[in-house]
Amino acid sequence: MNAIRIELSTNKKQKPEVSELGFGKYYTDHMVILDYDASIGWHDARVVPYQPITLDPAAKVFHYGQTVFEGLKAYLTADGPIRLFRPRKNFERLNRSNERLSIPHLDEELALEALKLLILTDREWIPSAEGTSLYIRPFIIATEAALGVNPSTQYKFMIIMSPVGSYYAEGIHPVKIFVESEYVRAVKGGVGNAKTAGNYAAGLKAQENATKQGSSQVLWLDGVHRKYIEEVGSMNVFFNINGTIVTPALNGSILDGITRDSIIQLLKHWNIPVEERALSIDEIVEAHGNGSLVEAFGTGTAAVISPIGELLWLGHKLSINNGETGELSAKLYDNLTGIQKGTVEDPFGWILTLDDREATGVSAVNAQSHKS
Amino acid sequence: MNAIRIELSTNKKQKPEVSELGFGKYYTDHMVILDYDASIGWHDARVVPYQPITLDPAAKVFHYGQTVFEGLKAYLTADGPIRLFRPRKNFERLNRSNERLSIPHLDEELALEALKLLILTDREWIPSAEGTSLYIRPFIIATEAALGVNPSTQYKFMIIMSPVGSYYAEGIHPVKIFVESEYVRAVKGGVGNAKTAGNYAAGLKAQENATKQGSSQVLWLDGVHRKYIEEVGSMNVFFNINGTIVTPALNGSILDGITRDSIIQLLKHWNIPVEERALSIDEIVEAHGNGSLVEAFGTGTAAVISPIGELLWLGHKLSINNGETGELSAKLYDNLTGIQKGTVEDPFGWILTLDDREATGVSAVNAQSHKS
Ligand SMILES: Cc1ncc(COP(=O)(O)O)c(C=O)c1O
Ligand SMILES: Cc1ncc(COP(=O)(O)O)c(C=O)c1O
C-alpha cells in the first residue's frame, strides 16, 4: 500500500511577475518524489519542499542516460476550477517510455494522485492570465551508483512544476522552420518514440545551427531515406494540402504527441479529412510549387499550435500562407486552448478538474492510498 | 590561470579485496571537479574527497541528457611506475564529443594534469594483481536548472576512479554475441560517434534481450540498411577473414575506439593486412559458410581484447574457431596488455608513466598551473 505523505515548506518563495515567467525558469514551492529499489519496488510517495537532489557521481543517469520524462499543463481561469488536459495520457506514455528504457513500470493512478496533491499544495502558483499555465514535468532518473552498462536497480520519480508565460507574447504567430539535411534525431529501432533525454541531446547541435540561420526550430527528416518528414523540435507537424490535413504516421521514430492525437480527433469531429501517412519533403516542395500547400503547423503541449510561416530547405525559402497564421491553425488553436481553459465545450472528456476547495484540507490524512 | 587545488579526505574508505573488485563498484577516496559557467568559462579545478553531488531537479542533464564521458585505465606492476595508456587520446575524444553535444571545449592538458594529481593522491587504490587496473571515468554533465531545450550555461567536469578486477577470471576466453535485427543503436547524422549517455540508454533493451538468449553482448547493425556491422556494446569489432583483418570503417555512427586504433597500428607494425571498410553481416555469414571466417574479436578499454566464440544471427548459431580463443586474438591481447603493464616494449610511445615518488609531495603547492 502506498500512502502519499506531505511535508510542507516553511520557507515559501516569492512568486515571479506574470511578465517575467518565460518557460521553465521558476519552480513552485513543492515537488513530488517517489523512490524505487529493486528489492521493494516503488515506495515512499511524498510531496516535499522543492529541493536539490543529492546523487553519487557514479549514478547511472549521469553516464548512461537512463531517464524518461513527460510534459503537461494545468490551467486556471479567474472563476473556474483547476483544469488538467488529458493527464492520464502522459502517465501512459511515461510507462511506454519506461518500457523502452528498461525502467520499471510506475502505477499511473498513484502518479496522478501525487500530481493532484502537488498541484493543490502549490495552487497559488498557477497563473491565470491569458496564455499562461502551470507546466508540469514528471521525470524518472536512474540513481544506482555503478558503472556497469545495464539497467539501474534504483530510480527516483519526481514531479516539478513551473508557472509559464504565454508562448505568444502578441497572440499566435507563425515561426520559421529549418529543414535539417545533415543531422538526424532518431531512427526506427532506436528510442525516437520514447520521451527520453538522449533524443533532446542529439538535437541541440542542429537547433543551434537553425537559430544561426534565423529559424526558430528544426524539422527533422527520417534517418533512413533522409526525406520523410518526422517532427519539429518538441512538436508534431501537420500540413494542409488542398484541404486534406496530412501528418506523419507514428512510425516508431517520432513521439506520439498528445496534442497531435487531440488535433486528429478534433479534425475528425469536424469532418475535415485527415491522413496519417509517410510524407516526403519532396511532396511538400511540390505542393508548395503548385500552390496546394495551404497551411502548416506544429502541435505540442508548450505552444499548443505553432503556425509555420516559412520552411528553409537546402537554402530555399518556402513561404507558406504568405507567412501568416492560417485559418485552420487559428481555429484549432482557439478551440483547443478554449477546451483547456474551459471557455469552449469539451465533447471528448479531455479535461480533469481539480476542485480548488479540496485544497483547504490538503494534508497527509486525506492523501489517498493506493496499491503499489 | 587555472591552479588545481587539493582538499584531502580525512575519512579514508576501506579498500576492497582484489577478489571482490568486479567493474565500477568501488570508488577511490578522491575525485576531480571543475566547474563551467558561461560568464567565466571552466574554473576552480580541484581534487576533493569523493562526494555526492547536489543538483537542482531541473538540471538539464536529467531532462535533456547533455553529457559526455570517457573511460581509460591506469596500470601498476609490483615494481614499476604508474602507467597510463594513451590518456591524451581520451581527452581529445572527450572534446570531439563535447563539440557534437554543444558542450564547451575543455583544456585537455588541464584535464590531464588534474587526472595525474588525482591518481597520485589515490595511488594506494591502484591494484597490481594480474588483470586488475584502475578504471578512470572522466565525464561532463549539464547543470543549469532550466527546462528550455537548449545548451546549458553551466556544467561540471568530474573524474571518478574505480579499482577493477580482471575481466577474465580464468584467463582470456571467448564470448557469445547476439546480432541485433530489431533495435538500432545509432545512425549516421546522429550521436553514435560521440561518447554520450543517450547511446547507452538506447542499447539497454537490446542488451537485456541478448542476455535472455544466452549471449553476453549485442552486435549492432547499421540503422539505414540494417545489414552493415557497426560495433559491439562497448567494443569495436574485428574479423579475421582468410588472414585479412577487417573492421568497420569510422562512418559517423560508431565510436572511434582507442583500442581499435591501437590494434590497427599493431597489425600494421606486424605487416598483417588490415582493412577498414563497410562489412555486411551477409559477408560474415558467407565467410563462415565457406570456412574463411578464421577469428573474430571485440576491442575496448574494459576487456582490451574479447574473442568472439559464437554469433547468434536470426536464430542461427555461427560458431567461430570452434568457440575458442584465436591465435591472433591471444597475440594481440598479450602484446597490448604487455605494453600496458610494461612487460612488453612500447614502440609507439603509448605509455605515460607517473613517477610514484612525485606523490610524496602532492599538495596544492606543486599542482601545476595552466592557462584556461
Ligand atoms: C519530440 C517531441 N515531439 C512531439 C511533442 C509533442 O507532444 P505533446 O503534444 O504530447 O506535447 C513533444 C513535446 O512534448 C516532443 O518532445
Ligand atoms: C560504444 C563503444 N564503442 C567502442 C568502445 C571502445 O573504445 P575504447 O577502445 O576507446 O575503449 C567503447 C568503450 O569505450 C564504447 O563505449
Automatic annotation (TrEMBL), chains A, B:
Enzyme class, spelled out: transferase
Cofactor(s) essential for the protein: pyridoxal 5'-phosphate
Pathway given in the UniProt record: Amino-acid biosynthesis; L-leucine biosynthesis; L-leucine from 3-methyl-2-oxobutanoate: step 4/4; Amino-acid biosynthesis; L-isoleucine biosynthesis; L-isoleucine from 2-oxobutanoate: step 4/4; Amino-acid biosynthesis; L-valine biosynthesis; L-valine from pyruvate: step 4/4
Catalytic activity: L-leucine + 2-oxoglutarate = 4-methyl-2-oxopentanoate + L-glutamate; L-valine + 2-oxoglutarate = 3-methyl-2-oxobutanoate + L-glutamate; L-isoleucine + 2-oxoglutarate = (S)-3-methyl-2-oxopentanoate + L-glutamate
Record-linked PROSITE patterns: AA_TRANSFER_CLASS_4
Biological process annotations from GO: amino acid biosynthetic process; branched-chain amino acid biosynthetic process
Family named by the database record: Belongs to the class-IV pyridoxal-phosphate-dependent aminotransferase family.
Protein name: Branched-chain-amino-acid aminotransferase
Species name: Paenibacillus radicis
Record gene name: ilvK
